[in-house]
Design a protein that fits this description.
- This protein is mainly beta.
- The chain has two domains: about 70-175, TonB-dependent receptor, plug domain (Ferric Hydroxamate Uptake Protein, Chain A, domain 1), CATH 2.170.130; about 180-560, Maltoporin, Chain A.
- The chain has helices at about 30-35, 55-60, 85-90, 95-100, 160, 520-525; strands at about 15-20, 45-50, 80-85, 105-110, 120, 125, 130, 135, 150-155, 170-175, 185-190, 195-205, 210-220, 230-240, 250-260, 290-305, 310-330, 350-375, 380-400, 410-415, 420-425, 440-460, 465-480, 485-505, 510-520, 545-555, 560.
- The strands form four sheets. It has a 17-stranded antiparallel sheet that branches. Strands 3-9-10-7-8 form a five-stranded mixed sheet.
- Strand 23 (about 465-480) and strand 24 (about 485-505) form a beta hairpin.
- It is globular.
- This is Putative TonB-dependent receptor BfrD.
- Belongs to the TonB-dependent receptor family.
């Protein structure tokens, strides 16, 4: 399926631009006359940033980050925390999470067709360590940032806050929701390779108690490589209630996000014969990948006493990926030889492999926490405690015809000098246009329950200590539907952290910390367990990661530079 759309659905104007002009006034007639005779016209000032009234501006100024869950200033956290302002990347048409994380210290990204290919400090983050508003976004699919306000990265083991983790850290995407301050905006963009799109962000305070917001985006783009492109649609309404005394804040939001791609999965460059243009795409007419996400979240914050707040959130997320395409390829010369000299019988063509997969991931999560402050003698405490419960389901259905016992049944042959000259192997004739049969099908159901406690103890303004611990109990059951095999597993884990912070002056914060994370089932997680592996051949116990970190956080030039 190709996406070569020439029309532009105009929905908006450019976002992120604030036009400012100023004029002075005076009641004095003399001053007015002087102004008339000494008037200078100043150029229009264009500011590509967020308005001062935007409630998330403090995050962009790197003061706090919700990924820490405790509401503390980042300088009081004995770990590295980075915040990325998504609006800056939107000016250049970026949307993929992996693209926006490029260049972030300690984070590496590599293009992957079916997921984001993100690692934090050398540990893969795709499966368990990416969150949206504190809710785990597990599963295999590419994540969109169409409705994301900012991206936060907490580096190092984070099990004390989020439970299971590979150990490199966690990424949290914070969505746009209704509030009483953010301005509305509409915009459109046009770029190279038929890149067109529009965005709408309508935020309205109906009165002192209610606010609504509607965020939408639609885009369509092609590529420098022929036949490659994608289109994307996102719509997210939200509603926020605020009590008269401003002690209750309740937000409910829903997001639908769909990304439909013709993937660029042609042969590697060293497989191509001489003279083939780098602009040549090898996608077939029906090659496509669909990533679809539906999420619902309701979030309640209640200040029930001075310096004490209760937080509760319930969320449900469902992501679906439909993957169906040819990929790779091996060139056979006119002499019937491969590049390595072996014989072949598809002379003058590139032979491509085929696979399809449909994967559904569902997450239901209920969480609550209480944050408060109190004193014990001369010590100040900022404490957080709470509980998380989650249920995760994963169902992958795969048709793998590139490896294993079914390899070689279905191929596509393409002339690299004229990709419209292509043909299918004989096995396709018996399918009558349908997909080949599935080769694997499994269902996994995972549950976890946790309790956590964290306390920032301040001895004085300069010396602070962070103490935290979390207990996780989890279980899963995997059912191999095709082969009628089952496997279940149950375990628990304790994750501590401790850190010390020294702030000799307000702009400088030195810290040292120890933290520990766990990854269940020998590091395999809860949702990707095979029922065919003999459990006696490997260790099924949790895999632990311990980190000792020393660092410094500094503000320079009156806060205009952060290191």
């Amino acid at each position: 399926m190709r996406f070569v759309k020439k029309s532009l659905t105009l929905m908006m104007l450019s976002t992120g631009c604030l036009f400012v002009s100023t004029q002075a006034f005076s009641d004095s007639d003399t001053v007015k006359q002087e102004q008339k005779t000494n008037t200078a016209t100043l150029p229009t000032i264009v500011i590509e940033a967020m308005a001062d009234g935007d409630p998330i501006k403090t995050y962009v100024d790197y003061k706090q980050a919700s990924v820490t869950r405790n509401g503390l200033d980042k300088k009081d956290i004995p770990q590295t925390v980075d915040t990325i302002d998504v609006s800056k990347y939107k000016l250049y048409g970026a949307n993929d999470l992996s693209v926006m994380l490029q260049g972030t210290p300690g984070v590496s990204t590599s293009y992957d067709t079916r997921n984001d290919g993100i690692s934090i400090r050398g540990f893969n983050a795709d499966n368990n360590d990416i969150y949206r508003d504190g809710i785990r976004e597990s599963g295999q699919y590419r994540r969109s940032t169409a409705n994301v306000e900012r991206i936060e990265i907490l580096k190092g083991p984070a099990s004390v806050l989020y439970g299971r983790s590979a150990g490199g850290g966690v990424i949290n995407m914070v969505t746009k929701v209704a509030n009483f301050d953010s301005p509305s905006s509409i915009g459109a963009y046009v770029g190279s390779y038929d890149n067109v799109g529009g965005v709408i962000d309508f935020n309205k305070a109906l009165n002192d108690n209610w606010a609504v917001r509607l965020v939408g985006e639609k885009s369509d783009t092609n590529s420098f490589r022929s036949g490659i492109g994608f289109n994307q649609e996102m719509l997210s309404p939200s509603l926020t209630y605020r009590s008269d005394d401003e002690k209750i804040l309740w937000t409910t939001e829903y997001t639908y996000d769909s990304l439909n791609r013709t993937p660029d999965r042609g042969p590697s460059y060293d497989e191509l014969p001489a003279g083939v243009s780098i602009k040549t795409g090898f996608a077939g007419s029906n090659d496509n990948i669909v990533d679809e996400t539906k999420s619902f979240r309701t979030d309640l914050k209640y200040e029930f006493a001075p310096n004490w707040k209760f937080h509760w959130a319930l969320s449900h997320r469902e992501s679906f990926q439909d993957f169906d395409n040819f990929f790779g390829g091996t060139w056979c010369s006119a002499a019937g030889l491969l590049n390595d000299g072996k014989k072949c019988d598809w002379q003058g063509k590139i032979r491509q492999n085929y696979a399809w997969q449909q994967t559904t991931n569902k997450t239901l999560m209920n969480t609550f926490d209480i944050i408060g402050q109190f004193k014990t003698g001369v010590l100040d405490h900022k404490i957080m405690f709470g509980s998380d419960w989650s249920n995760e389901k994963r169902e992958p259905i795969l048709g793998n015809y590139s490896s294993g016992s079914s390899a070689g049944l279905y191929y596509r042959y393409v002339n690299p000098y004229n990709t419209s000259d292509s043909s299918l192997s004989s096995g396709w004739a018996t399918l009558n246009g349908s997909r080949p049969a599935e080769t694997s099908h499994s269902k996994t159901d995972a549950n976890s329950l946790s309790f956590f406690l964290q306390d920032l103890v301040s001895f004085n303004e300069k010396y602070k200590m962070m103490l935290g611990v979390r207990y996780d109990s989890y279980d899963f059951a995997t059912n191999d539907v095709r082969n009628q095999r089952k496997r279940s597993y149950r375990d628990d884990s304790l994750s501590p952290n401790i850190g010390f912070v020294w702030q000799p002056v307000e702009s400088q914060s030195f810290y040292t910390s120890y933290s520990k994370s766990f990854s269940p089932y020998g590091g395999r997680g809860l949702l990707g367990v095979s029922t065919t592996i003999n459990p006696s051949l490997y260790d099924a116990e949790p895999q632990y990661n311990e980190q000792y970190e020393v660092g410094v956080k500094s503000d320079w030039l009156d806060g205009r530079l952060n290191t």
